[in-house]
Amino acid sequence: MRKFRLSVLIPLLLVAFIPAMYAFESTMSVEGGINLPQDDVEGDNVLMGSWAVTYDAWVFGDLGLGIGPWFTNVKIKNDANDYHSSLEGVNLYLKYKPTKVLAENFPRHYLINRFSPFIAVGAGWSTHYSENEHGIIDDASPDKIGGHLTFPYASAGFSILSKWNTTMDIGVKFNMFDTDMIDLVQGGDYNDALLTPYLAFGMHFGRKEPLIDPEILKLRNDLNSTNLKLNEVIGQLNAVTTQMPEFQTEIQNLQESMDQAENYIATLQTEYAQMDNKLNELTNKVTNLEQRVAQTPAQITQITTPTTPSADIYANDIRQLQDTQASLTASLNQINQDLAVMNQKIGQLDALTAQVNAIKGAADVSAYAKELAELRTKINNYEVELATIREDTVNLHKTDNELTTSINDLRSRLLTLNEEIKKLSEQPKPEVKEEPKVEEKDEVTKFEEELKNNMIHFATNGTSVREQDKLFLNKVADFLIKHPEVKIEVQGHTDNTGSSKINETISYNRAKSVANYLISRGVPESQLFIKGYGPSNPIASNKTAQGRASNRRVQLVIVK
Question: Per the confidence metrics, is the pTM higher than 0.90?
Fold first, then answer.
């Protein structure tokens, strides 16, 4: 009985502490599990429950301080060592449950907002009352000033946070006791301990993260994607810009080499022309000399012929002709040597000309010029794309700011309207006669019929309110402001194109878009209930385009 009073008193104290829970984020849970005793008795474990109430205060962000009172029973069946033990205690621990790193977060309107792991370590104080079938008792109850340290205490598992701030934990915890007498058998290698798989349900208090509108979340995701693409384009542009000086230097060097080669070719061509002229002159001179050499023997023979009356008269002529022949022969040999040298030089000139032409061909920079032009074009395209991306980024920032401002304005107007409604409700109500009630009822009935005959339609995958539907929605807003007691269910529908999951999201966003427009016209949010039905309630056949267009709609239904 004393143990029961202690187990109830501690949870009551925690409940009394609820007002302080909202000072910072905290979680209060109720745990239930099954014990797997780690003792010195080998036998059949009778599965018995383990219960606890825990309070976690997240005073250091993802790291929190926790306290958890608990009680349980253990029963082992062994022919010689049957025993039953009841235990209770309280643990203090540090608990780490990440909210960003290692955690999966979802938008606030989703059923599950967060899925994250957790781990806890700590220590505590516990008591027990054990008895076996032989009447042996070990009592470490508080009234006997008993008890023992629980160390270590550890737990680990996974936690789920819902959009209603409720939590569910699935984990396993381990308690080791500073005693070996819970099983009434002493002398084992280790002290007695409990291993407990458990399931916990709780409530999270003081949650501070703001409600993120899906449209703003989508814009922010688009903005992040645009920034990534912008960084990628900037990186490519920087890489091309870094390579540009190398290409320009290489092209400049090739251009200089080509200019030098062309100048060298021009010089060689001039020298070649001069040598060609000289070769022609030498060729003519050789021809004349050969003719004179050929005529010399005949002249000598004629002079030395015996029929000549006086050979002495021509002795001088003979010597002159012989000297001339020797001179001509020497000149001819010299000319042949000069001609051979010139032919050698011409061969060298031809080789140099071929080499220069090869250099000129290798120095053709048309390919480099083409590549340079392509790089410049690519840079220009990157600059245009970069300017477009920057403009889109500015527009996304602007749209994000406008949406945030609009939401804040709507919330301010909603608070103002709620205050005005509260003031009006506090004023004495005038007596209502029967005739105005009948008239008001007729007016509501007429409005209900008008709602049935008018629906708001959308384009395929569209969620924006069309201009032609805003006139009717303005009338609806005026009526709802005039009749605050009337509540409307904004029902979104789609055709059967696409998956059911996508259509349910689109139908909800359509209903949300219409509700936001009514709120922007001054309708209190408390008068509107948003619901997306997807393709489940068609009013026309989805086999035709006209039927599908009719099914892409939002209906306004009075909630009775």
Answer: no
